[in-house]
Task: structure prediction
Amino acid sequence: MSQPTTCIFCAAQKIPADDEKNFVLHRGARNFVILNLYPYITGHLMIAPFAHVGELDSAPKEVTDEMMDLAKRCETALREVYRPDGFNLGMNLGRAAGAGIADHIHLHIMPRWAGDANFMTTVSETRVLPEDLSTTYRKLREKF
Result:
């Protein structure tokens, strides 16, 4: 698998006028919220700093504090729109840990339902999504 030549997070946040096209839901002071282009489940969001930071322990406290505040806002928005039974939050730091983009930290937040089909990605290398990204964007954008 070839590595991307441009960081997807740096490219997505470059032009605010392209936020809808790039599925950027919200811009904070130091981080932004974006839909995952290859979601494991409907509503799979990511929070990434504007700065190109590759290690969590290299990120300034102001960045990580806002990241967690945005995670709480994402949880609220996802709960209001999708009424999930729970959430997964996590970071994959480094390629060996499963990071698809290893040089720009980002926090995943995903709504979960009892009995959802999340195992399909692992078992069958198949993702099951009941709605397209544009619909998800429209539903969640108004919550920010």
